[in-house]
Amino acid sequence: MAGVTMQARPAEIYLNGRFLPPEEGQVSVMDRGFLFGDGVYEVIPCYGGRLFRLEEHLRRLDNSLHAIRMHNPLERGEWQAILERLIGQLPGADQSIYLQVTRGSSGQRDHAIPDGIAPTVFVMTQPALYPDPTTLATGIKAITLADNRWLRCDIKAITLLANVLLRSEALDQGAGEAILIRDGQATEGAASNLFIVQAGELITPPKSDRLLPGITRDLVLELAHQHGLPCREQEISEAMLDSADEIWVTSSTKEVTPVVELNGHPVGNGTPGPIYTRMAACYGEYKALLQAGRIPS
């Protein structure tokens, strides 16, 4: 699906109740998001001006906020109105919406969570950066790395330094993603969820505090059930990963991307596999229906 040119840029962001130019946005240096990474975020794709699974994204936002002892500062309708106004700046375009909620500023730096402070709410949109057709057709390389992140990876927290370093290590080694290993089990990618195919069956690790509950991950499972692709949620050992017939990574920006080489060795025959080809077609059909307004945002 063609995206907008990179020259097209939105003129406004949303910050704490105001729509304003990005260069006019200001946040206190005492904001706990700045000082502690005390906040959560969401990334919501928009296809042809239609939001992708908004209810699921807002539900995950609620869960993340609850996990860090915060309440959602906005009602569902308020969120939708903000998002619709921002995506309206690039009518009909594929976009990526980023929203972030931090705990705000109490005026001092103290680890203790303060009472009664106003959260900082920030939203922006930008032209979509999805995998190019060549990448989806040929696949990417991946490496495995030790999962050295914290124990609440189910929270979509803005504290992403560990993920940044892991992904950078993959890029340094000429790979497009790092698949993370903890206690002998593959958990997810540095910035993606993980699927493998063994003997024609699609397998992904079950939801837990070790991985992010991905919206795209859940859609892939739904599409597999709808289209008769055998699938299950099961822990993936490092041995299973090494012997997989196919490996995929999924996210809002990666969509469904095949991995054709792992740690320098081909996955399967070194090309995207037949189950991936079927899922890619199902995913493309879903996007087309969303664009056409035939399924809800």
Report on the structure:
- This protein is an alpha+beta fold and 297 residues long.
- It folds into 2 domains: 115 residues, 2-Layer Sandwich (D-amino Acid Aminotransferase, Chain A, domain 1), CATH 3.30.470.10; 159 residues, D-amino Acid Aminotransferase, Chain A, domain 2, CATH 3.20.10.
- A hairpin with a 2-residue loop joins β1 and β2.
- 37% of the residues are buried.
Radius of gyration: 20 Å
Main sheet characteristics:
10 strands, mixed
The helix content, as a percent range, equals: 25-40%
Strand content: 25-35%
Question: Which CATH architecture of the largest domain is right?
Answer: Alpha-Beta Barrel
Distance between the termini: 18 Å
Q: Quickly count the helices.
A: 8
Low-confidence stretches: 1-7
Number of domains: 2
The CATH class of the largest domain = Alpha Beta
CATH homologous superfamily designation of the largest domain: D-amino Acid Aminotransferase, subunit A, domain 2
- What is the CATH topology assignment of the largest domain? D-amino Acid Aminotransferase, Chain A, domain 2
Total E-strand runs? 16
The arrangement of helices and strands along the chain is: EEHEEHHEEHEHEEEEHEEHEEEH
Mean pLDDT comes to 95
Query: Which geometry do the CA atoms define?
Result: globular
- The structural class is alpha+beta
